[in-house]
Amino acid sequence: MFDWLHAAFHKPRTRVYRVVENFVWFMIIASIAILMVEPFVPDHLVNAVNAIDVAMLVFFAAEVTLRIATVRPAELELFQKAPFGALRTRVLTMARYAMRPMILIDIVTVLALVPALRGLRALRLLRLLRTVKLFRYANPFQSLTYAFERDRLLFTFAFTVLAVMVTLGGVSFYLVERGINDDVRNVWDGLWWAIVTITTVGYGDISPGTPVGRSIASALMVGGMFMLALFAGVVGHTLLNAILSIREEQFRMSGYVNHIVVCGYEEGSMLLDTLQEELDEDTRVVVFGKGDRPRELNAEHIWVTGDPTKESELDKVRLPYARAIVVAGARSVLPQNADAKTILTIFTIRSYLKKQSETHQRRAPVHVIAEVLDEENIAHARTAGADEVIETRLVGSSLLAHAVAYPGIADISSRLVLRGDQNFFIGSPPEDMNLPMSFEDAGTVLKEATGALLVGVRDEHGELVLNPSGKLSVHKDAHLIYISSHPVLDEEK
User: Fold this and answer.
1) Is the preceding omega at residue 436 within 30 degrees of 0, hence cis?
2) Would you say residue 485 has pLDDT above 70?
3) Inside any domain, residue 140
4) Phi first, then psi: what are they for 260, rounded to 5°?
5) What is the distance between the alpha carbons of residues 338 and 371, in angstroms, rounded to a whole number?
6) 193 and 165 both lie in a single domain
7) Does a structural domain hold residue 74?
8) Rounded CA gap, 384 and 350, in Å?
9) Which domain holds residue 447?
């Protein structure tokens, strides 16, 4: 019987757990509904509604009691203990389990059975935090719960210091002020005054009337400042990261579309600056990398923390809605290791996109550009799914060597790749171009109409042909490669 109850409350993979959990959630929703409609219930039905509410509270009291009572100590599964030792272990395990934040909420909620504490019924709304589906990667409510459980020793220490200060100060104040201060009638008044003083609230309902009482108050005021500093340190150490983890959800929940995703970032890289110069002002660049946002990253760039090699995290950057993805190589590791990560990232991206319904609704697929550091890995990157692969070290070395053999060629090549000067572009032929026609005639028509210089074509099979014969036939399905200071043709369809 105990095993069945344990499974019903602590084994999510069992059928009985799912049945019990679904029924509990039905009761939670029903109880919240009753709480919401209670102010509008006619007078003659108030007693009936209250009776139903009390019955639900009794159910919740039984549920939380069974949940605590059926906790199975992991220690007893490893060690054999005497009956008294086993009982002690069970009691301590149940006590620790009952101190979990979500269980404490359940316990406080059922205290509403006491007529004087009926206002605590509103706390049942907090039970909805268990199933918050708004956050996928970093639920801050769960993170707070884990923070309390992980650093319970820190919180225990802080609250213990607070309890000692309140007890010593409150009892001392009561002993000094009783019979002299009309506002201090019992020890509870002294404890209340101590809490108000330490927390710097200072209601003023009780104030010291003797020199010794003022001395105690002064000590508590000074101690209160240290107490606040202590709690600030504890909260900053344990809860700040839990709260800030919500930033991982920020971009996923946004409405950004047609953005550029850059996977990988290294300090000193000029990729982002040059990329922003090439793009329109309305196009956002999202950098997807590990760790916190680098301080040197420009404000207009969006930083999303994550690992692009993990398919489960790619939705953070709204990948199906992106225009293009740039997978940058890492210079801090060996070229082969950097390329291996690049290829894995590309493969993961393509695998993820195939599973998304939005991918099949796009007018054009997501364009993936990859940087590799070893020429041997160009074919591997294309096989993994990259549309374009750039071997930056080979390009740079070739440019240097070519400039040595043909002086002045470096200046020309630089002007062909820098924004604001002449550059290579590719686009669809104008609709008024009477195709098919020869490459020579197409170049003449394009030059007269736009001023651009036609230098090649990409045929309907995707093959690039640069500086072809003037007699080459250019068809409507081809794309034109030209040199111009700005795009003059529509982007390729």
Assistant:
1) yes
2) yes
3) no
4) -110, 130
5) 10
6) yes
7) yes
8) 8
9) 422-484
